[in-house]
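Q: What does the assembly look like in three dimensions?
Context provided by user:
Components: four
Sequences:
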Amino acid sequence: MKLENLKMFCLVVDEGSISQAARLSFLSQPAVTRQIHQLENYYNTLLFDREEGRLRVTEAGKLLYPFAKAIVNDFNHSKVVIQQSTGEYNANLIVGASLTIGEYLLPSLLGRFKKQQPEIKVTLTIKNTPRVLEDLSNDVIDLALVEGLVENTDFIVDKFAEDELILVCPSDHPWKDRKEIQLEELGNERMIWRESISGTRLIVENMLREHGVLEKIESYMEIGSTQAIKSAVEAGLGISILPRLTVARELEQGFLCKVGISRIEITRNLWLVRKNKRFNKIGVSKFVDFLR
Amino acid sequence: MKLENLKMFCLVVDEGSISQAARLSFLSQPAVTRQIHQLENYYNTLLFDREEGRLRVTEAGKLLYPFAKAIVNDFNHSKVVIQQSTGEYNANLIVGASLTIGEYLLPSLLGRFKKQQPEIKVTLTIKNTPRVLEDLSNDVIDLALVEGLVENTDFIVDKFAEDELILVCPSDHPWKDRKEIQLEELGNERMIWRESISGTRLIVENMLREHGVLEKIESYMEIGSTQAIKSAVEAGLGISILPRLTVARELEQGFLCKVGISRIEITRNLWLVRKNKRFNKIGVSKFVDFLR
DNA sequence: CATCGGGTATAACAAAACGTTATACCCAGA
DNA sequence: TCTGGGTATAACGTTTTGTTATACCCGATG
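A: Here is the predicted structure of the complete assembly.
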């Protein structure tokens, strides 16, 4: 037995007419007739007397009415209550991001998203990529924004942006007016690196190794923070290869200079990663849409 | 949404297992899985966490449970209440019968039926056939037992027995030792008739007219009661043609004699008539079954 | 460590249910 | 008598619901 039958029964009783009930529910009259018949068959009794083409509720119908009403009301109420509870659940969104993305790209992005969806409470947690993906696995975060490849096949992975790794030097460096240099020239410079487990550093090293110049480059300094690297480069301590995202402002304001490397371009994708769930928070789908 | 889904949800919560719920409801496990999925889709939220192959009710599930329980309970209650009300309705049975059937056949029949279905309160009303059928039309009686043809096509008509019209004479009548007489011999006898509107009389007259002897028979007396006719015949006032039913006892005890008429046999069907309703009182179907 | 038994999810398919249109019928009112 | 509003029924296509077969995961057991 369907709840729709009981709902329809109430409507027919209230309206006193099957046709009218059909119109109000945007159904054909035979459909409603059948729904009532099903109820009558189920209870094995007439619910309406059909006399002179008109309906009159029978005794059994009068008995059924309050039950039907109560059931339909409870059911509607249950919808509201659950919607509310999932509404609270849906009202927040926890984003996890890797360091680069989280520190340089996401703040403005989240600002714009928040302006578009002010009712969603957004939280941002920044960790390195493996930790972020671990959080995603454990449902600590709702979605992850990372660079670098994601291997877990249980995740849904979409590219949402690109970033470029670029060579930057101090504004008073001899290369400052050159459009581009040859890769081999790097050997003469003091290179400042991120710590060795950094995804960014891995990519750069791979690239240099492929071109056979990695060994020739002096590892002058290792610094665990992008911001510190930028300051070091600005201070003339060396050069570095950094995501364009992180140095956009410094380039613009002339504190740092970008120098191209001939025939080399290191772009990498930025990935939006989420769990393959049957039900997502509304914020997740909203944010995914927003990123397109 | 079906009430079965809510019922099933309660069961799964109670049992803590989809497979167990499936077994208890004699359904396949995929069927139950899908029912739960439908609920989850309807409420657009998970109701169970599937972890390590085990189910754990979610927050939303916990919220839904009391509603589901209440709805299922109300629904069950509604069934009981309506069954009770129709039960009272079903507890009685009003039978209408024509005079002959009602006075001679039905008393013992109803006695046996009552023994078989003691909980059904049976009422018998006896009128002539047209009146009985009128009562059936107006729902004054639940079923009718009549002889003679029923024309109304809205009725369901089933033959439930046969009756024979037989010639009876006093026990001291000259014919008393004869197996049968010739039709023509009737002309010499004093025939006692029922009143002219009697169905029985019509049948007999038709038969006699077909054989061309009706005009030759003296209409000696008209009496409006079968019982009175029997007494008149016993008293030697004449002979009569009566339903075997009505004279069975007198024949047995020798107060009257049956005399066959050569080549003539007047059997007629006794009809069980009922309205073509979608829902019948239980007593009606029980009585119909009983008569087979 | 492989295997087994219990659990859930999914695909594919047959059977049942549901809504549709077309149609019949009945009754009241013009 | 015809029309308009009502209900019931038949026929038909689509959707839903159950089934079996199958995959997969996990914990227990040999």
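Follow-up: The mean pLDDT of chain B is 88.
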